[in-house]
Amino acid sequence: MNKMEPVLRVRDVWKSYGDLEVLKGISFDVMESEVKVVFGPSGSGKSTLLRCINYLDPPDRGDVFLRGVRLGEKDTDINEMRARIGMVFQHFNLFAHLRAIDNVAIGPEKVLGLSKEDARQRAMAALEHVKMADWADHYPAQLSGGQQQRVGIARALAMEPDVILFDEPTSALDPELIGEVLQVMLDLAKEGTTMVVVTHEMGFARAVANEMIFIDGGVVVERGTPEHFFRGADSERVRQFLHKLEELYGKEREELRDVDGE
Amino acid sequence: MQEAPDLMTIVMLIIVNGVPATLQLTFFGLAAGFAIGLVLALMRVYGTKEMQWFATGYENTLRGIPLLVFIYIFVFGVPWVFWFVDAVSRPLFGVFFALGIRSGAYQSQIIRGAILSVGEGQVMAARALGMTAFQTQLYIVLPQAFKIALPSFANEYAVVIKDTSFAYSVGIFEILKVSRSVTAAWPALWVPSMLIVTVTYFVFTYPVTRYFGKKRKIHVSARGG
C-alpha cells in the first residue's frame, strides 16, 4: 500500500436539501494514521459532511475516494466501501435487540462473511479494546451512555476499517461520562487509527489532531494544526468560536492532556 | 326424533367438527394477511411514490368493505378463481382468501407502525456497517418490529378468529355452524349451545390476548436512534 496515497480524499463536496445549501465545496485529504478534527458551529454541515463521505447521504457534487477508489462509481459496491469506513454516532445508534457482543459481531459476520465463531472472537477483542469486555452480554438499554458509545466504537473497530468517522461522539453524554469515551479515542489515535472526528472537545483535538478544520456555512473557513488554532486563529469568526467554547467548557478538560503527557 | 344430546355431547360435536375449520381459517387467514401486510408495509415505508400510493389505496379499500361482502364475492361471485381446488373446498378457500386480504390491510398498518418505531438511527448504523437494505431489514429492523408488534398481532388474531364465524353463512362447518345445526334439530338447546359457542371462542382468544397483549419489556435504548 502506498503510504503517500491518502486513505480518504474528499474533493469539492456539495450538498443541499431543497433550497438549503449545507455543503458548498469541501475538500480535504486524510493520510494514513492521521487524525483530522472537524469543528464549527451547529448547523454548519459537519454531520452532513460525514454522511456524504460514506454515501449514507450521497453528495450532489464532488467526489470521495477511499484509497483511490471513487465512491458512487457504478461499478464500486457501496456496501463494500462502507464496510471499510467505520462510523460512530452522536446517539450511539446501537441495535437495541442485540447484546453488546452481538452488536459488534454482526458486522463481521453478516457483512464480512466471517464464521460465527471468528466474528465473536473479533467482537470480543474489540470490546476488550474499549474496555467493555465485562459488559459483553448486556443489552444497550442496560448500559450507560458512555458504555454504549464505547460499544459503538467497538462495533466500528471490529470491521477493521481503513478510517473511522466520529460524529460528535461525546456531545450526547453526561459530562462525567465523556472522559471514558475520549480516553478510548485518544488510545485509538495513538495506536495509529486513521480518524475523522467531528467534535468540540478541544482537549482531544489539542492532544492528537494532526489537522483541525473549521467549517462554517458549508465551507472550510480555516484549517491548520492545533498549535495554529490555539495560538490564535487567523479569522475573527474562528477566534470567537474558540473563545465561546472555552467559556462553555472552561479549562475542565485540560487534565486530559496532562494524563496523556502531551 | 332422536333423543336430545346432553351438553357434553354438544361440546364434543363442536370441538371435533367445528374447531378444526375455525382454527384452520384463522391460521391461514392470519398467515396470508401477514404475507400481504409485510409487503404492503415495506412498500409504504421504503417504496416509491407509486408503491406507497398502491399500498395506502389497498388499505383504505379493504378496510372500508365488510368482510361478509368479500366472502360472498369469493364464494358465490367468482368461485372459479379457485379453479385449482375441487368444488367442495372452494367455499373454504373463498373465506380463507377473504380473511387473508382483509387482515393484510390491518397487518400492514401494524407492521408499518412497528417498523417506524425502530428508529432511523439503527438503520443508518446498519447501512454504515455495509449491510444491504435487505440485511438491514432482516437482522435489524424486522426482529425488533415484530417484537414491538406482538400485542397488536395478538389483537389481530382475536379479530380474525372471531370473524371466521362468518364462514357459517356460506355453509362451512366451523364452530358456529355446528352449533346451529344442533339447534336446528333441537330448538330447546339453543341457549346451552350458544353458551358453549361463546365459551369456546373465549377460550381460544382470551389466553392469547392476555399473554401477548401486555406490552412486555423490550430492550429499547432510551437514547437509541
Taking all Cα atoms into account, the compactness measure Rg of chain A is: 18 Å
Oligomer: heterodimer
| Net shape of chain B | elongated
Class derived from helix and strand content of chain A? alpha/beta
Please report the number of helical segments of chain B.
8
Order of helices and strands of chain B: HHHHHHHH
Helix content of chain B: over 70%
CATH class of the largest domain in chain A: Alpha Beta
Topology:
The complex is a heterodimer of chains A (262) and B (225).
Chain A: E1 8-17, E2 20-30, E3 35-39, H1 46-53, E4 61-66, E5 69-70, H2 78-83, E6 85-88, H3 100-111, H4 116-129, H5 145-157, E7 163-167, H6 175-190, E8 195-198, H7 202-208, E9 211-216, E10 219-224, H8 226-232, H9 236-249, H10 254-259
Helix pairs in contact in A: 3-4, 3-5, 4-5, 5-6
Chain B: H1 7-46, H2 49-63, H3 67-77, H4 90-118, H5 120-128, H6 133-163, H7 175-185, H8 190-213
Helix pairs in contact in B: 1-2, 1-4, 1-6, 1-7, 1-8, 2-4, 3-4, 4-6, 5-6, 6-8, 7-8
